[in-house]
Amino acid sequence: MNQFTFKGLMAPVFTAYHSNKNKSVNCEVIDSYAKYLKQKKVEAVLVNGTSGEGMLMNVVERKQVTEGWKKACDANDIVLMVQIGGAPYPDVVELAIHAEKLGVDAVLCLPELYFKPKTPEKLTEYLKNVAINCPNTPFFYYHIPMFSDVNIHMPTFLDMAEKSIPNLRGIKYTSGDLDQGSACLKPGRCIFLGADSILCGAVAAGFDSFIMTTLNIYPEISYEIINCVNNGELQAARDKQKELNTKISNILKHGDWVTGMKKAFNETCHLNLGETRAPLTYNKITEC
What we know:
Layout: E1 9-12, H1 30-39, E2 44-47, H2 59-76, E3 79-83, H3 89-102, E4 106-109, H4 120-131, E5 139-143, H5 145-148, H6 154-161, E6 168-173, H7 178-183, E7 190-193, H8 199-205, E8 209-211, H9 219-230, H10 234-251, H11 257-268
Parallel strand pairs: 1-2, 1-8, 2-3, 3-4, 4-5, 5-6, 6-7, 7-8
Helix pairs in contact: 1-2, 2-3, 4-6, 8-9, 9-10
């Protein structure tokens, strides 16, 4: 079993597309993207997650993107987590096997999205069947109920799943329910916060690891929030959180979460990752 000791900021990276009709995957820009994040002191990435439009790519494309990031992460000393879920079960298994053979640092997995698990037992069963295909790779569950509509109590699930999934190391917790998230925090677990807008409160509650889309664009603000909370400068932390939330609100005027964030990244970085794939679209804003 490989160990997973990373704590801190992990950027859920966007997937780059060419500007052709099919928006084919552009892997050529990945190394430059990795270097950009490294310069911003972001030491880890999540590939093929929500921000990376993993569920809008086929298996071949997801493998290509993973392989591109594996090469770039090795070259730039960056930790690599890969999201393998959000596909038919045989494809999820194939992606799990691929991730382990490639030697990624960790895998993250969504629940079954059509035959949704309704109990901790069913969720544990599904993830166990996936995790046995990458037994030497640290395994994480992706809790994002606003998209998956799987609303299972995470502390109960973790207590159960840890007994039957040997390589389970924690979860990515993308929810505004900070009480439930805080109850997941225990020694030996790695709980990644995925909700940018409650970073200040989460740090105060004890979170120390984060996978948030805005880390691609404004990682310095998150660093300031974390440092201010840990230094007892709570008003400064609140002010920085308000600044970040205002930026998020302005970004979301241009589209859904992924589309708006990707557009903001393209506008603030020298890299151009292209537009999002359908059905994700930009809002048309009429200037008065």
